[in-house]
Design a protein that fits this description.
The structure holds 2 protein chains of 2 kinds. By secondary structure, chain A is mainly α. Chain A has 14 helices and 2 strands. In chain A, strand 1 (48-49) and strand 2 form a beta hairpin. Helices cover 47% and strands 10% of the residues of chain B. The two termini of chain B are 44 Å apart. The chains are: A mainly alpha, B alpha+beta.
């Protein structure tokens, strides 16, 4: 005993390091029970052909290899990557724009606009999806607006159009995520020292130059957070697709999370569903890791 | 990275190593011999039955709660715990419930491969043939309806009986009586008359058929009716149940697909129908947009509430005058008994009670379509949509019954056909390419079996 105590004393002051594990034990137990064990089970099931009821038959990695060979399974992943443009890239750009404009211009009723822009975040996504279904309907608000301004030729069944259904669903995501990004960036802007802007202005920088030399680099950590949150939201989209299009028309808006639900609960291909779920987890993990490292940088 | 590996190892170990499903694998239940069956629940002692149903909407819920209450009144020793869930919720949770240790005694099971056949394969449902013999169910029901609730553990539509359905349903032609009369037209008696009326309505600037296919199910119904018209009831039935040598690429099925595409091109169907929701299209029809709507009898109450007796309904008129109506349809979820139920006899008595003549009367009074209506139609007002629904069902069954829904063909067929129909309606697939897609799915399923 004294020997161990002596060893710790040599290393660092304070309590022995091993005690740390005791502190995280409660959280770890919950995490193991509700995340690790289910995850392990999902990996295990994904190695079988299983209908959810009878005894599964060993499939090895076939459920994974078909993710690459079966066009019906490739399409959802491709769609999810396209959705990232709408769920992550566009909201971040719009959020930066809104934040930098509203931090420069003293706008009356700013709090009101900020609340309105953030509101979609607070709404349940099912509600959002139902509202947008009405907006996109052939006789919906969007087409009515187009007809009112003489652009009736552009009116169409947006969610039923093979080329436009995916962007239409994506733009709902943009609408939802932009508010979040903006609020994050506004908070970040308040952290930037005024002196930096003054210095930039003394050096003759205009609004654009100021944005790129001062605002953007200072917002790096916020951008990394926003990117992580929106990328995760984009890749795991389920409710929007489920309610608006159920993956249609054809499989134009099918996404991995929807396929997981569909295969596990509706068509009895539980092994394949688990494989898609695991692949999606790996994809989310990999993309967020790469993106945050790139944006946040390693200098800190 | 090392810590990550530890997490992964823990997770995998925790998962255990038996193949999934092994923990509840069991033998196929045999079912009680006829001589051991007791048909009197009063003698069963104190019994609690757990019943799972999806009768959550208006008249469906009304009839189900009324009949359950009557059963408990008749047999005070029986207590029924009812669990009602929406269709989607039943489909997603019943599998887990049946494979658990405390499954419902009686549950409403969806027909088809992913549901009923999967349960049968796993030995989770009690075979009902002996009960059918004791209660005379095979005389009560037409064979086409019993077949839909039967399975030989591989296929469905044949073999042992595993359930009974309370209600029938079919795809019919709903119409707006005032609008049709305003155009100087009568409800069509033959298919030619029907298509002729579509052209006349279009020329008058009316929308002939209300059609909302965003939720992907509307087109199956229209296409199913067309396929039955051109290929014939028996051929379509064999094709869907996987009997015989028929193929989806048959010229007559191709013709059915061509007509559907043609209807879109001519503007007989709602423009941009792929972008219009199913419920929204029903609302538009009720509001007077569209003269016809081809959909299932489950919409009778939905449309009848706002439209009243202005809502007309006929089975799709036949190609040949005087022939039986050609349509698709079947019955609602089947009442089945879990193989783990400790009270199969009482459960069977309940199923008998829920489907007998008295039940048909209650079903009729609550606005439902009893699977076997008897002479209940006479109890309804002559020009009401409910009366039209029952009359139509009688005519369909007298003419050989409906063909089953096409999506029963394979476990994936619903996806295949709904996606392909959206492409067909959009003009992205030719009728030949469309039918080739259907056949490819059917071939794939046959090889895998």
């Amino acid at each position: 005993m004294t020997d161990i105590a002596g060893r710790y004393r040599k290393r660092a002051p304070g309590e022995p390091r091993a005690v740390g594990y005791l502190y995280i034990l409660p959280a770890l137990a919950v995490f193991t029970l509700f995340v690790l064990i289910p995850l392990g089970r999902a990996v295990w099931i994904s190695l079988y052909d299983w209908d959810g009821l009878s005894v599964g038959t060993w499939a090895g990695f076939r459920n994974y290899t078909t993710l690459f060979t079966d066009p019906e399974l490739r399409a959802p992943f491709a769609n999810a990557l396209i959705l990232l443009l709408f769920f992550a890239a566009l909201p971040i750009v719009l959020g930066l724009l809104l934040a930098s404009v509203s931090s420069r211009v003293r706008l009356r009723g700013l709090t009101f606009f900020r609340t309105v822009l953030f509101l979609p975040q607070v709404l349940a996504l099912v509600v959002v999806a139902i509202v947008w279904r009405w907006i996109y309907a052939p006789d919906g608000l969007l087409n009515a607006a187009l007809r009112a301004v003489g652009l009736g030729d552009l009116a169409r069944g947006w969610l039923g159009d093979f080329h436009l259904a995916l962007p239409s669903v994506g733009l709902i995501g943009t609408w939802v995520e932009t508010g979040l990004c903006m609020v994050l960036f506004l908070a970040g802007c308040q952290r930037i020292p005024r002196e930096l802007y003054e210095a930039a202005r003394l050096d003759g920088a205009g609004a654009v130059r100021e944005f790129f030399t001062v605002t953007l680099p200072s917002l790096r950590p916020e951008i990394a957070v926003a990117a992580t949150l929106t990328i995760v939201a984009g890749l795991r989209t389920f409710d929007l697709v489920y309610v608006t299009t159920a993956g249609g028309p054809g499989d134009a808006t099918s996404v991995p999370a929807y396929e997981v639900y569909h295969r596990a609960f509706e068509t009895g291909q539980v092994g394949s569903a688990a494989a898609i779920g695991v692949a999606l987890t790996v994809l989310v993990f990999a993309i967020t890791l790469v993106v945050t490292r790139l944006i946040e940088g390693r200098e800190k | 990275m090392r810590r990550l590996a530890v997490f992964a190892a823990v997770a995998l170990l925790a998962a255990g190593c038996a193949p999934p499903g092994a923990e509840f694998a069991e033998n196929q239940p045999e079912g009680k011999p006829v001589s051991a069956i007791s048909t009197d629940p009063a003698k069963a002692g104190k019994v609690t039955l757990n019943v799972w149903d999806q009768e959550v909407r208006g008249g469906q819920n009304e009839q189900f709660s009324q009949l359950l209450a009557e059963f408990q009144k008749r047999y005070p020793n029986v207590t029924i715990n009812r669990t009602s869930k929406s269709t989607d919720d039943v489909r997603t949770t019943l599998k887990l419930a049946l494979s658990g240790n405390n499954p419902p005694d009686v549950a409403e099971v969806n027909q088809g491969y992913p549901d009923m056949v999967a349960f049968v394969k796993a030995g989770m449902l009690t075979p009902l043939d002996n009960y059918a013999q004791v209660y005379g169910w095979k005389k009560r029901y037409p064979k086409t309806l019993l077949d839909l609730n039967s399975s030989d553990r591989k296929r469905f539509g044949t073999g042992t009986l595993y359930g009974l359905s309370q209600m029938g349903e079919y795809v019919g032609v709903f119409y707006n009586k005032k609008k049709l009369a305003a155009a100087g037209l009568e409800p069509p008696k033959t298919w030619q008359e029907f298509t002729g009326e579509l052209e006349k309505l279009k020329a008058r600037g009316e929308l002939p058929i209300q059609f909302g296919n965003l939720d992907r199910e509307a087109a199956i119904h229209v296409f199913g009716v067309l396929a039955n018209q051109f290929a014939g009831r028996e051929a379509l039935r064999s094709l869907i149940l996987g009997k015989g040598r028929g193929s989806w690429t048959d010229p007559k099925i191709v013709q059915a697909a061509r007509v559907l595409q043609d209807w879109t091109r001519r503007g007989y169907l709602t423009p941009n129908g792929n972008g219009l929701g199913y419920d929204d299209s029903a609302k538009q029809f009720a509001a007077g947009k569209g003269v016809f709507m081809i959909t299932g009898t489950w919409e009778t109450e939905v449309l009848g509430a706002p439209m009243g007796n202005n809502l007309g309904l006929i089975p799709p008129p036949p190609l040949q005058p005087g022939a039986g109506p050609a349509t698709i349809g079947g019955e609602n979820f089947a009442l089945a008994i879990s193989s783990k139920s400790r009270h199969p006899d009482v459960s069977a008595a309940l199923i008998d009670f829920l489907t007998d003549e008295h039940a048909a009367k209650v079903l009729t009074e609550t606005g439902n379509l009893p699977a076997v209506p008897g002479n209940n139609a006479e109890r309804l007002p002559a020009d009401s949509p409910r009366r039209a629904m029952l009359d139509g069902w009688d005519r369909i069954n007298a003419g050989g019954g409906p063909a089953p829904y096409p999506d029963y063909t394979t476990p994936d067929f619903y996806d295949t056909i709904t996606a392909a129909l959206q492409e067909l309606v959009d003009g992205r697939l030719s009728p030949e390419q469309f039918t080739a897609k259907l056949q490819a799915d059917a071939d794939h399923f046959r090889q895998g079996r």
